[in-house]
Specification:
Number of domains: 3
Helix content: 40-55%
Distance between the termini: 53 Å
Structural class: alpha/beta
Number of helices: 15
CATH architecture of the largest domain: 3-Layer(aba) Sandwich
Bound molecules: zinc ion
CATH superfamily of the largest domain: HUPs
CATH class of the largest domain: Alpha Beta
CATH topology of the largest domain: Rossmann fold
Length: about 500
């Protein structure tokens, strides 16, 4: 079988291309993590999820993956997003806010939000990275890098800190297109920091003996800049050159541009061969913002009773490179689809443990062939620039194949379990339910109406519509509606939601 190529859009070359690893079959991957000054919102997790899906797809191809994703717990300033290296430290600002009052100090605040982030990570079923370094644990590496950049003429010291001189790196701007000339235009409106030679220069070290998190350095007490942490930690764990680097679209400039400048000026080698950026999401058609009331953290939604796996499903339902409008209706639909996978697991487990159901005839071959084909097509879609909408649709089609059987044979149960395990490994939307014994009972999360699972009702209604028996189809819709289940017809089939009383 010819080897599958794993194609991803590369921001730097602006094209979809096969992800090449320097060492065959071993991906060295760095993805930017959160700044832990607050709870992560669903937009942050869209980005983390895309990184998780890269890892899952690479592993499905049999690759070894070294995945490093960091935690920023110092140095991210409010004006870092405009290449200014000014403003307040986000961590300190959070401590002085209303929410910050509950923390004794900034270290406790960082610890608290780190723990919450890791909980959200687990609940959304993201896989574990090989290393999850924290900026505060790698200050020494950042100082060493900064010292060398000063020594080799790429950085200079001023009364307020150490800054990287972007003029020393002629190809600065190659990732984002924000070249030095363009920047001179763009930053005219920003207040000039007199300590910098030019506005686009960015901080490697900030001198500040009042800062709540400070270390001693060759330049006195202070703290590292935000960008240098990722350069230092990527190099510490993955080496001078990495295969792939990802982040949110807001990370592209200045954060990743600055990482490239620092790392390449330090090592003299290319920093990264492939760049991936995840688009922001909108919520109910608008930019997510606290003041418009459409700002969702992962834990808000989970606390409101939404299933975390359904949230994962909803967040990955649109490919990472496309604009995505997150809606609560979309999340409710996802709940119904996630339940299909659970019901498949329950039936497969029950059939595997139940009495032998006789010989598997020719039927099993067709059943197996269908599921194998659908898994292959799902993996193909993921290898096609993480086309999650097709990847999920193929997996969902597999649930229809399984749920169509009124009773799985033991052989079919094995085949179904294998399919579900593969889908779970690739997409993370089909974890085995904790209590498979709940199969078919009224307490099952997969609802049973008049003794029949909702899936059977939906199938029957589809058949009725096909044979133009609209009265029968309507009767089914009505019966389900009386029980609080609303059906929704989509191009992928019919999904259901239960109105929350
Ligand atoms: Zn980063």
């Amino acid at each position: 079988m010819p080897e599958r190529a794993f194609k991803l859009y590369d921001t730097q070359s602006r094209q979809v291309k096969a992800l090449q690893t320097m060492e065959p079959g071993h991906l060295r991957f760095y993805s930017c993590g959160p700044t832990v000054y607050s709870y992560a919102h669903i937009g942050n997790f869209r980005s983390f999820l895309a990184a998780d899906l890269v890892v899952r797809t690479a592993k499905a191809l049999g690759w070894r993956v070294s995945w490093v994703t960091n935690i920023t717990d110092v140095g991210h300033l409010t004006q870092d997003d405009v290449a200014d290296a000014g403003g307040e430290d986000r961590m300190e600002k959070a401590l002085h806010s209303k929410e910050g009052e509950q923390f004794a100090n900034v270290w406790d605040l960082a610890e608290y939000y780190t723990t919450c982030y890791l909980e959200d990570w687990e609940r959304l079923n993201l896989s574990r990275p090989e290393v999850r370094p924290r900026a505060t644990q790698h200050v020494r590496e950042q100082i060493v890098m900064t010292e060398e950049l000063v020594a080799n003429g790429h950085a200079y010291e001023t009364p307020t800190g150490v800054y990287f001189n972007v003029d020393s790196k002629p190809d600065y701007g190659k990732l984002s297109g924000n070249t030095r000339d363009k920047l001179k235009e763009a930053v005219r409106d920003v207040v000039m920091d007199d300590n910098k030679r030019q506005q686009a220069d960015f901080a490697l070290w900030k001198k500040d003996d009042k800062h709540l998190m400070q270390w001693f350095s060759p330049w006195g007490w202070g703290f590292p800049g935000w960008h240098i942490e990722c350069s230092a930690m990527a190099r510490a764990y993955l080496g001078d050159t990495i295969d792939l680097h990802s982040g949110g679209e807001d990370n592209m400039f200045p954060h990743h541009e600055c990482e490239i400048a620092q790392s390449e000026s330090f090592t003299g080698k290319p920093f990264c061969n492939h760049w991936m950026h995840v688009r922001f999401l909108q919520v109910e058609g608008e930019k997510m913002a606290k003041r418009t009331g459409n700002f969702y953290t992962v834990r808000d939604l989970i606390e409101e009773g939404y299933d975390p796996i359904a949230l994962r499903y909803a967040l990955m339902s649109v490919p990472y490179g496309k604009p995505f409008n997150f809606t609560l209706q979309g999340l409710r639909d996802a709940m119904g689809n996630v339940e299909r996978f659970r019901e498949c697991w329950r039936r497969a487990e029950a059939a595997a443990e139940g009495p032998s159901t006789g010989i598997d005839g020719e039927g099993i071959d067709a059943f197996r062939a269908q599921l194998e084909r659908l898994y292959d097509e799902s993996l193909d879609a993921m290898c096609d620039d993480l086309n999650t909408s097709v990847g999920i649709a193929k997996a969902l089609e597999g649930t229809k194949v399984i749920l169509r059987e009124s009773q799985l044979s033991q052989g079919q149960a094995l085949v179904a379990s294998r399919f579900l395990s593969q889908v779970e490994a690739l997409l993370g939307i089909a974890p085995k339910p904790v209590d498979p014994q709940a199969s078919g009972s009224q307490t099952s999360a997969y609802p049973v109406i008049d003794g029949r699972p909702i899936e059977v009702w939906i199938e029957e209604r589809a058949q009725a519509k096909k044979s133009k028996d609209f009265a029968a189809a309507d009767a089914i819709r009505k019966r389900l509606s009386d029980e609080g289940f609303e059906l929704r017809d989509t191009p992928d089939g019919t999904s259901w939601t239960k109105s929350v009383p």
